[in-house]
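haha ok so turns out i had the wrong file open the whole time. this is the CORRECT one, sorry everyone. sequence first:
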Amino acid sequence: MKKIVASALAAGLAMGAVPALTVPAAAQVVRGIGVVNLPAIVANSNAYRTAEQQRQVTYKPQLDQAEARRAQIAAQLQPLITRFNTDRQAANPNQQSLQQQAQQIQTIEQNGQRELQQMLAPLALSRAYVQEQIEDKLEAAVQAAARRKNITLILDPNSGAVIYADQAYNLTQDVLNEVNTALPAAQLVPPQGWVPREIRQQQEAAAAAQAAQAGQPAAQPQQPAQPTGR
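then structure:
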């Protein structure tokens, strides 16, 4: 359960900005099924919001230092960028000089970004620490909310991933039984000319691309003989 929650949370956070906390209408349509936006829960939790406000005070020296350095870097870059744009618009611009100027600008920007990140590292560490504390409470919170609302299946609204599922939804053994019935035993030795499915698909795609370039319909690949018995 914890791995499922962590995976869904990581996927949501990887998408960038965290959406506002909303209650989708679909959660009210099918009884027993709900949706949970884990990144929105983290970002809208009292602990997270309070920490965001407190961080502006606790880490004000680092913020002020980073802002001052950011202004210095911008002031350093401005004349270089102005010169670059002017030289680029010349009738016969010196490409070698432009390349050197662009490299200089890029180097200053990259070094400045690393410097700012280092200055703000304590804030990033603080935010990660707060987020982890909230994440540690998510699994129990999801289960408690599910029990209170009589929800047996919870999905992530962004990815559709299962966040929580009652054991009644676990069909692993049922599907295994079906597979064992459909294929009690498998052929050990492949037939002559057989290749794995992935390679067959690659061959079909290559043949289709070659035929498209030639303006002809793709030839159907010859299928290897299928085993007739077990």
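Residues 1-180 form one domain.
again sry for the mixup
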